[in-house]
Amino acid sequence: MMSLLPFHWHLVEVLVLVLATLLHRVVVTDPSQRRFALGGLVALLAVTVWPFGDLAASVSLTAATVQRLVIMLFVAPMLLLATPVPVLARLTRRAPVDWVTRHLAHPGLAMILVTVTGTLTLSVPIVDFGARSSIGRDLIVLSTITTGLILWIPALGVLPGAKRLSAAARAGYVFASALVVTSLSFVWIFAQHPLYPALQHQYALLHLTPLFDQQLAGFVAKLGCYLPMWIVAFLIFFHAEDQGVPVEDTPLHWADVERELERVDRQRARTLRRHRPQ
């Protein structure tokens, strides 16, 4: 059976993740952020290389679903929490990037983008592309990481200058997001035939028929998304009260003030350029 899933080193992916881990340890000294980074990168490595990554890419829709859930619900928030605020401030300082990240912090827009990109990465043509091409496979992983980052930007409120939601709003956003992340799950559960022709050898490797694997993926998507995200929503809400912070209050940080001052300076510079004599 293992001849159907030959061993691959995936040296490029392993090298990139190892270098990212080493670079983070050199740049970041905070122990908790180091743990966040290590946990996120180890989890990413586990679900993208042989054997699980190969199963997700070309064999099993259930494995692909688990891979995406791990990346979106664990890896992405860990990477955001592992990045120091000064680094985020530098990365988002340029006006175009600042404009994009400020709008991504809007919960409505974030949910729309997560729904659209999440659905596209699990559409039949994209899954087939990833099953037949290593480049396609890597692009799917990168797009899934991006989708996960978009998902957690409003919930974590770590981007300088972006609108920070109150604890009640963040909890509500996380709770509601669980409903849209799994947009294709009902299609998988109620479909009468397999939808992904490029996913093969499910029975030989996992003793699952293609249709049952697809239906199982639908249930895994629902339970694997609802349970952790609803737990996080309740923790956000009650943790704020435990700390004595009113759940309707929005915290203000120096990085937000600094970013607003930068925006004022940019606006003043644009105004001066428009009124400069020709």
At a glance:
This protein is 75% helix and 0% strand. The chain has 278 residues and is mainly alpha-helical.
How is this structure best described in words?
The chain is mainly α and 278 residues long. The chain contains 14 helices and no strands. 34% of the residues are buried.
Any key phrases for this structure?
single chain, 278 residues, mainly alpha
Largest sheet: number of strands, sense, barrel closure: none
Number of individual domains: 1
Strand content: under 5%
Overall pLDDT confidence: 89
Q: Evaluate the radius of gyration.
A: 21 Å
Element string (H = helix, E = strand): HHHHHHHHHHHHHH
Termini separation comes to: 76 Å
Q: Considering DSSP H and I runs of 4 or more, what fraction of the residues is helical?
A: over 70%
Unreliable sequence segments: none
Number of strands: 0
What count of helical segments does DSSP give? 14
Apparent shape: globular
Oligomer: single chain
Question: Helices and strands: which structural class?
Answer: mainly alpha
